[in-house]
Amino acid sequence: MTGGYRASGTGRVQSRRRAIGSCVGGTGILAGLLSGCGSESASPELYFSRLRVWKIPSADRFLPAPRGLYSDAQNTVYVLDNAGRVLVYDSDGNLSKRWNMPDSRIGKPEGIWRLQDGRIVVADTHYHRVVFFTSEGEVDGMFGAQGRGPGEFVFPVAIAQDVSGCLYVGEYGAHQRVQKFDISGKFMLQFGSHGTGPGQFQRPSGLALHNSEVYVVDAFNDRIQVFSEDGRLRRIIAPPASSEALAYPYDLRVAADGRIYVIENKTARLTLLNADGSIVGRFGQPGRNLQEFYQPWDLTYLTDGRILVADTGNHRLVELTP
Length: 322
Description:
- With 322 residues, the chain is mostly beta strands.
- Helices cover 2% and strands 43% of the residues.
């Protein structure tokens, strides 16, 4: 059974259903890519014609790992790594800029976004704040401090901006919540609390905006929750009972047509969902080979349909070409 999907541009991702544990015949990396050899459940597969690695530059004698990703409309890619750096790549994977966080001795940041005004904003996780940079990497302001009150944070891990310019910050510490701010950092509202019920979170580690709705990856609850911009729960998205559940989904992106790319940390795979949660296809499995991932943390997609995965445990970025 075959089908196709046009991912946010001109590329095509095909899917095919297979039996548990089976894989299309062939040997070598290309066979693995074309077959989508990955998840061990009976689920559709995503197909890619090419897989390529973008290198993370060393830091002294240390080979860092990518943690956060964002790509803008020009396909410039912004990366956070666990050396406490922001790395900027062009659309071909060439490193064009890099700079350090103001401080990273007690922990490294996870969430990054390019703002409408061209600045870069980072959820500085272990310093409990949001940091703004100019496009050249100069600190251009910050807000937040450790605490449980409005405008305070305990481990902010995700950040996103809506079309009106407002910022949303997800945190996984004391409150397990999402806070909304204006562009100056003024607190507007918050939603969510710790728990497993509707509207509650266990590590809201990824955010995406689509059609005036806020999509939140609820990692430990293995689901996606969708809210209005004023924090009202609209719906919960998860694969149907007939399909394998999400397994520690860590981040997501929503395509123009409403389909959802999810990176699953526990099962080390990329999953593409329809808006209703049904599975379009999956790719990847735990491992060290080129067609495998190890503890992936993030993903983004480019306007030509390519997908970039922060293959964190393998210390690399992996580009998937439909």
